[in-house]
Amino acid sequence: MARSKTQNKRRLGSKSEKGARKAPRQPSSAARERALKALSAMRRGDSLSRAARENGVTRRSIKRYAGSALVQDRPGGRIRATKSDRLVRYLQVPGADGPRDITVRGSKAASEFAHYKAAINRLLRGDRNAMAAWHGKKIAGIELITDTTTLVEQARKEILPYSLYRSLSGGAA
Length: 173
Known about the structure:
Number of strands: 6
Helix content: 25-40%
Structural class: alpha+beta
Strand content: 15-25%
Order of helices and strands: HHHHEEEEHEEH
Number of helices: 6
Radius of gyration: 24 Å
Oligomer: single chain
Largest sheet: 2 strands, antiparallel
Distance between the termini: 79 Å
Number of domains: 2
């Protein structure tokens, strides 16, 4: 049975042929997040190996995603994390109509945002003065929401993904 020219071309150009290249692997955002958490653990005193093991990521992945934030004083010496970095992080901040996705550069901005999230959770537990320190502040050029009513309403609608509001019996009203 003879094959037509188009059938031969299809067969020869198929990806299943021996020696055909595989498509390049797309970077995993989950692996990147785990690598950044491991970097944070290293800043708290863990070794590279321990931070990798506890965060479910390989040493190689940490070096791939956070390599610019790692230093080694001498060949064969311990690899440690720098005090801060300029790595890009993707965050969700509360906006007037719900969460907004923003991009920040640096561990200092990410830490500042973590303190802001902690203040929101204190507010939702009933601390009415939790947002006082955040009035008029910005992260990555975006003004932070400090209106108690807006934040509590978003927590009730379960729009704030990181809030503890659902797990608490009390909360600000």
